[in-house]
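subagent[fold] <- orchestrator: predict structure for attached chain, return tokens only, no commentary.
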Amino acid sequence: MSATLMDVLTTTAELLQLDEVADMLAHYGEYSDGEDDRKQDTRLDTDPDGMLLTAAARTAVYEIANDGFPAVDTVTAAAKGGLIPMEEIGGNVLYVISVAKGGGIVRFTTTPYGVKVGSDGEYVVTYCIRIGEIGYYDDIKTDLAPPYVVAYRAARNYCLMTGRTDEASIWDGRYAEEAEKLRVRRRSHLPRRRWV
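subagent[fold] -> orchestrator:
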């Protein structure tokens, strides 16, 4: 379940009952006919509340990625000479989680030039993304943490930025509760240990 930053912003604005910001989000980028010529709605980029909410949501994505919910992506890439070049995987690889071929996990080694595997062919590479600057309509990989959990963290950040510390602690508690539920659910899917 991935979402865009705009989805997280919209959910956060609804949670915090920021009606004016929600209206800006709903109309962001639309064109309207003005007296002189068509103008694009960019109030979100100049409104103080809109700018604070955007900063809070971007910070939430970074924080969640470092709180046990990394942004993860998967790509199919070809190996030549036993090496899958980093260019085939993507330029924003933080680290490789797993490599699979034919449905089975294979051994691999990560190098600065790519991922070394045993043979040539098509591989499915799962990796953690290095999060860069996030645009409004960029896909944020929140597969491990649903967008509403990111919105809880963004709501906390917004409240801290605006000095509403009591409300921030409430949103922080909701985030912590949901994050722990997700961690427990993820641990319950791990295979049982067995003696070799």
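orchestrator: received. Logging for downstream: The radius of gyration is 21 Å. The CA atoms of residues 94 and 130 lie 5 Å apart.
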